[in-house]
């Protein structure tokens, strides 16, 4: 009988000793409460007939082992699961019937705060959720600056450029900046006259080709009295007339702003409209426009148009004849183009708010001019706030209203009339003004539309905004109310089985659920049933040039009860959830453009992550159970033993350090390997063969850069496989790997 096994007796209590051990046995029997073997003792673990003097072997689940190897997941004695509740939310509690001890399995996923850069939160089975170490991006190169990027879940390494002017410091390779604390001084800058410093870092001050500013102040303003285009230079300029849209001082990245002055000359006669557009040569141009009715050299009350990166637009209505100062600001030294259009006088659009909404008639196009609009409404489709304090991410909105006498399907098309931005639509109920009044929203694009099915009779409002100060063609269409498809909504969707992939057409699908992943996008829902506590991986494959989302939600499909969410503009999109209790859930897939998608679901019984401590080569690859598993490791201090077919060229022998795992399949299976959560640019290679390390399989190597870590979805025959965890382009660090195995028979 193996050590630690239980003899086959009717009773699971302690056997009462007899014979020559009678007296001593009687004493033990009193201590052990022998006599009635029909009562199961939760305090006993039978060590087996071959147990040593200590009564248990070193393989008894950690009951009698050294202090440094005690199993932290084991708790007190038990007879059933109900005795094992530990009030620690991040553990899965059960009674280990073999040991008759409580087992508290940690689930790190329960502790996750959805932030990457602060490190992975860990579940301590004794203490609960604990913060892990933050992501360490530092390297040993003094000529690089390392930062953790939350949006891409990766470390960014850039040449040392402390002042953010785009030119690395001169004593590092590729750099020429002789003053890395002043962004106006670098090897790409223009030498300015009469300022006493070497602006272009060529070793000479105020050389012959130095530049002086042009149109830098009101006394040297450029007069424009007719429609047309002109070029402007911010070389050698200073910010002489700061405004709310171009504030004085330096931004966090130390970008220096300058401005030039234009005199808009409205000729004698009738009032005129003036439409001004300025464009910069790069996304960091930070161009903006401003004007005033005060004296040019002493502006107090200023109207301005913010920067939308490389473009800004100021629409001026009904200007009387005369001169009007126009302050054109942007990144100092940049080159700008200016467009000015004079036209007959008109009035600004009045429909700025819900209270001043204009009617929109089905089938009749409207032009929404957004250059003068202000922001009054919020939408779930609003872009995230810009980290750049000078750049706007959304124009103001204009509001329209319509009424339906009966239930109708509604489609709203928004087509940009210029290249200034992408339209944003919001459909709102009769309340209109509050965020809770929004029914659905959509980031518009040519060929797509906001769609709402079977809107009840009543009044509705429609707001239109844009990611830039452009004009938008707006059209409302009404249709007879239709019945939603079976996979629309969360009430009773069709099922998806573990290991199944479904082709999903989102034609005529609306934004029917609000799980908070991709607001405004058409969606499809399927029910996923879990019979046991399970780890779940949902995978969506999206069309080119689309953005998609996939999420695991409760049957209510609410953002508050959502279990996981993945959003990406690259395929495949993935969402993981660990230790999900038994029950029925909703797998929701979304597409920003309403394009065809596929949805796959993978499950396995819930299990904690396995630490891969060594597994450096073929001497001891870590075994992956036939049912898959969750693994974590770190390649930073290991060796580069194997090459991979998807690595970048010009690498040292075998590239980056790697680790090796082994998977034995007894039957043909679908195997999914996902390295989401890894902290560096990963590479994953699957090799086949009876002997280690095998040969890399065709199409079984995946590089994972930025947020899109390595992912493989393979159909594998029975046999032996070696999973090589590696780094792309020489990188190494902390990695995570999820393996899901679905036998072909399922």
Relevant terms:
Jelly Rolls; 5-stranded mixed sheet; 1% helix; mainly beta; globular; disordered N terminus; 746 residues; 38% strand
Name of the CATH first level of one domain? Mainly Beta
Low-pLDDT parts are 1-69
Number of beta-strand segments: 43
Spatial order of the strands in the main sheet? 8-10-15-12-13
Number of helices: 1
Query: Which architecture of one domain per CATH?
Result: Sandwich
Gyration radius (Cα, Å) is 34 Å
Mean pLDDT: 86
Major sheet details = 5 strands, mixed
Task: Classify the helix fraction into a percent range.
Answer: under 10%
Which range does the strand content fall in? 35-45%
Shape: globular
Kindly identify the CATH topology of one domain.
Jelly Rolls
Cα-to-Cα separation, first versus last residue:
36 Å
Assembly state of the chains shown = single chain
Secondary structural class: mainly beta
What does this molecule look like?
- With 746 residues, this protein is mainly β.
- Among the domains are: 218-344, Jelly Rolls, CATH 2.60.120; 354-480, Jelly Rolls; 501-605, Jelly Rolls (Sandwich), CATH 2.60.120.380; 610-743, Sandwich (Jelly Rolls), CATH 2.60.120.380.
- It contains one helix and 43 strands.
- Strand 6 (144-149) and strand 7 (154-159) form a beta hairpin.
- The two termini are 36 Å apart.
């Amino acid at each position: 009988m193996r050590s630690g096994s239980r003899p086959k007796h009717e009773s699971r209590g302690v056997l009462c000793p007899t014979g020559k051990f009678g007296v001593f046995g009687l004493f033990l029997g009193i201590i052990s409460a022998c006599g009635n073997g029909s009562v199961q003792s939760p305090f006993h673990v039978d060590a087996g007939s071959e147990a040593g003097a200590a009564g248990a072997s070193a393989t008894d689940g950690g009951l009698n082992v050294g202090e440094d190897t005690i199993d932290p997941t084991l708790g007190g004695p038990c007879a059933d699961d109900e005795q094992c509740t530990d009030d620690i939310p991040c553990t899965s509690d059960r009674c280990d019937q073999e040991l008759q001890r409580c087992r508290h399995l940690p689930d790190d996923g329960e502790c996750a705060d959805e932030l990457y850069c602060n490190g992975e939160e860990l579940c301590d089975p004794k203490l609960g959720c604990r913060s892990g170490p933050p992501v360490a991006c530092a390297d040993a190169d003094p000529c690089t600056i390392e930062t953790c990027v939350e949006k891409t879940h990766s470390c960014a390494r850039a040449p040392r450029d402390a002042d953010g002017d785009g030119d690395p410091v001169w004593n590092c390779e590729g750099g020429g900046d002789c003053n890395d604390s002043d962004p106006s001084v670098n090897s790409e800058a223009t030498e300015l006259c009469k300022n006493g410093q070497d602006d272009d870092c060529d070793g000479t001050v105020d050389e012959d080709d130095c530049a002086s500013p042009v149109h830098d102040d009101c006394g040297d303003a450029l007069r424009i009295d007719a429609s047309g285009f002109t070029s402007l230079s911010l070389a050698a300029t200073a910010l002489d007339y700061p405004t709310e849209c171009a504030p004085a001082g330096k931004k966090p990245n130390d970008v220096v702003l300058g401005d030039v002055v234009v005199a808009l000359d409205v000729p004698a006669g009738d009032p005129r409209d003036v439409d001004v557009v300025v464009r910069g040569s790069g996304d960091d141009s930070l161009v903006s426009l401003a004007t005033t009715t005060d004296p040019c050299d002493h502006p107090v009350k200023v109207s301005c148009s913010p920067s939308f990166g490389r473009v800004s637009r100021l629409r001026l209505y009904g200007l009387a004849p005369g001169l009007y100062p126009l302050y054109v600001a942007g990144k100092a030294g940049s080159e700008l183009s200016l467009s000015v259009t004079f036209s007959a006088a008109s009035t600004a659009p009045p429909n700025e708010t819900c209270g001043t909404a204009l009617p929109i008639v089905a089938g009749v196009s409207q032009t929404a001019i957004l250059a003068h609009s202000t922001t009054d409404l919020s939408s779930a489709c609003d872009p995230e706030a810009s980290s750049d304090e000078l750049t706007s991410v959304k124009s103001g909105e204009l509001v329209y209203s319509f009424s339906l006498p009966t239930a109708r399907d509604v489609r709203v098309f928004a087509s940009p009339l210029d290249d200034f931005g992408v339209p944003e639509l919001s459909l709102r109920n009769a309340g209109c003004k509050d965020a809770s009044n929004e029914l659905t929203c959509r980031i518009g694009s040519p060929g797509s539309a906001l769609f709402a099915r079977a809107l009840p009779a009543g009044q509705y409002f429609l707001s239109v905004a844009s990611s830039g100060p452009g004009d938008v063609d707006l059209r409302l269409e009404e249709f007879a109310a239709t019945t939603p498809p079976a996979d629309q909504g969360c009430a009773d969707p069709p099922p998806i089985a573990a290991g199944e992939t479904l082709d999903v057409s989102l034609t005529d699908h609306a934004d029917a659920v609000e799980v908070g992943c991709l607001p405004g996008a058409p969606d499809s829902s399927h029910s996923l049933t879990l019979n046991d506590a399970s780890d779940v991986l949902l995978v969506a494959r999206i069309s080119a040039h689309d953005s998609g989302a996939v999420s695991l939600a409760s049957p209510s499909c609410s953002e508050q009860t959502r279990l996981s969410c993945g959003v990406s503009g690259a395929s495949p999109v993935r969402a993981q959830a660990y230790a999900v209790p038994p029950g029925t859930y909703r797998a929701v897939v979304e597409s920003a453009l309403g394009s065809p998608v596929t949805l796959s679901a993978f499950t396995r019984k819930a299990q904690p992550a396995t630490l891969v401590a060594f597994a450096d080569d073929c001497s001891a690859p870590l075994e992956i159970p036939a049912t898959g598993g969750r693994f974590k490791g770190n390649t930073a201090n290991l060796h580069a033993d194997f090459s991979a077919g998807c690595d970048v060229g010009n690498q040292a022998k075998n590239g980056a350090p790697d680790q090796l795992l082994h998977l034995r399949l007894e039957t043909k299976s679908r195997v999914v390997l996902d390295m989401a959560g890894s902290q560096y640019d990963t590479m994953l290679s699957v090799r086949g063969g009876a002997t280690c390390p095998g040969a890399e399989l065709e199409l079984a190597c995946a590089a994972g850069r930025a947020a899109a870590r390595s992912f493989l979805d393979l159909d594998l025959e029975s046999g032996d496989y070696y999973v090589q965890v590696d780094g792309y382009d020489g990188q190494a660090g902390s990695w995570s790997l999820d393996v899901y195995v679905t036998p072909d028979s399922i």
